[in-house]
Design a protein that fits this description.
Blueprint: H1 3-16, H2 21-36, H3 44-51
Length: about 55
């Protein structure tokens, strides 16, 4: 999946979880940067921690 599509999905998930638009964009940017740097623990896998209400 192209990175821009992943980014759009991340923003949508964060917004659905209640994040403000600017916070969702900033967190998505950080998540994608971490993935590019090979730091998967704080990359996409971390997104689930951000959207989990529990």
């Amino acid at each position: 999946m192209p990175e821009h599509e992943v980014g759009r999905l991340c923003v949508r998930a964060l917004r659905a979880a209640g994040a403000a638009p600017s916070a969702a964009r900033l967190l998505t940017h950080s998540i994608l940067d971490a993935e590019r740097a090979g730091k998967r623990a704080v990359g996409l896998a971390h997104l689930f921690d951000e959207v989990d209400p529990g």
